[in-house]
Amino acid sequence: MARPRTSPQPEVPGLAARRIAADILDGVLRRRLALDEQLSGRSAHPGLPALADRDRALMRRLIATVLRRLGTLRHVLSGFLEKGFPADAPRTETVLLLGAAQILWLDVPDHAAVDLSVRLAQADRRAGRYAGLVNAVLRRVAQNRDSFALDDTVRDTPEWLLKRWSAHYGAEVAQAIALANGHEPALDLTVKGDAASWAERLRGRVLPTGTVRTIAHGAITLLPGYSEGAWWVQDAAAALPAHLFGDLRGKRVADLCAAPGGKTAQLAHAGAQVTAIDRSPARVARLRENLARLSLHAKTEALDVLEWQAEPFDAVLLDAPCSSTGTIRRHPDVPWLKGETEITVLTGLQQKLLDRAVALTKPGGTLVYCVCSLEPEEGEQQIEALLARNPNVARAPITAADVFGQGDFISAQGDLRTLPQMLPDADPRWGGLDGFFAARLVRAA
Ligand SMILES: C[S@@+](CC[C@H](N)C(=O)[O-])C[C@H]1O[C@@H](n2cnc3c(N)ncnc32)[C@H](O)[C@@H]1O
């Protein structure tokens, strides 16, 4: 006999977005998986394709809010948990973080935030028995919302990072970095043509460095100019290193560690003959797609720079893999994924890549080394060590004129050092830029 057909129960609206947000947060916080990898590419969460655009936007907002305000959320929730977060059901903490984030910062009615959180807990084998606790704690968060010090975002930076920044930059600057990291950054674009007219079309502004900044929301691919390849997404600070070479027309330039290609595009657009290398085939594929959209040309290879042999170049750009602690505004998972060990490992790799980059620079040629890190071991100290071990390399100090008159971006040694609180604006949505380090070096003729 044919079985009666039963259609699956329709899921409660909004639950899928929260469940996927919880899975991805568990990935970051408990398995140290990078957010980007869980949101796109081969390791992306399998539930993403079924999410409607609105739910996808909500999911992203939930994840970003929890990661940006993690210290504050844990502090608030701990006040209502006598025995701390249940150690035998880690999902309970994730559910509570998501629920409290909705109550405190998202435009979600309290009853919906509580109800959906309880359902999320119930759906988990181990957290299910804490559904009552989730209900009780989140209700108390809602009742007491006016008593929390939510403006104190310094708590949202892990102590190990705050300590590092205080040691290198001083306590006041470290706190300013932490505060700046709490703000959602604007969308920065490097434009091929007239920046002022693109700023007008995108309802943005032209920054002193030439970057067009907008606070437009929604899919980037739908913004004017995307499909015709008029611009590419690139933080204002990330756009500076490629400007440090001066006139590149007709020069042979190697872009080492090039993908996804923001700087390759700048170099090609400046008229250089670019060879772009990156060891990740998937990222090189993205670089090629990006260049094709922009109608820009570069020779591209998926290779390990450490094994690559080539005729030395007039100019070399090494945008080395790093801890990325300068990009926390855009990648709020970074502080929770990285630690001292990663910084030590990366420092060793950067040193090898730098030596290789010097060998790939012609005598008399220019090498620009950069990292999107705030850590001195990956920036300032890396260059001091190179200068000490290789007498054939000298620093060519960067001046304000090289960076559009922004003298405060230049360190006493003549390197580029941007911090997230620079380029401030009365409205924080328009201010800030990534923390970047860059040094310009010349190889002895
Ligand atoms: C900071 S990202 C580069 C960003 C890129 N320059 C841009 O502007 O879009 C660092 C890149 O280094 C690549 N990488 C890491 N180690 C490498 C190596 N040994 N050889 C080549 N590429 C490497 C990574 O795959 C990653 O794409």
From TrEMBL:
Keyword S-adenosyl-L-methionine: yes
Key word Methyltransferase present: yes
Family to which the UniProt record says this protein belongs: Belongs to the class I-like SAM-binding methyltransferase superfamily. RsmB/NOP family.
Keywords: Methyltransferase, RNA-binding, S-adenosyl-L-methionine, Transferase
GO biological process, one term: regulation of DNA-templated transcription
A Pfam family: NusB
Residues in SAM-dependent MTase RsmB/NOP-type domain copies: 149-444
Sample GO molecular function, one term: RNA methyltransferase activity
Active site residues according to the UniProt entry: C372 (nucleophile)
Residues annotated to bind S-adenosyl-L-methionine: C257, A258, A259, P260, G261, G262, K263, D278, D319
Protein name: Methyltransferase domain-containing protein
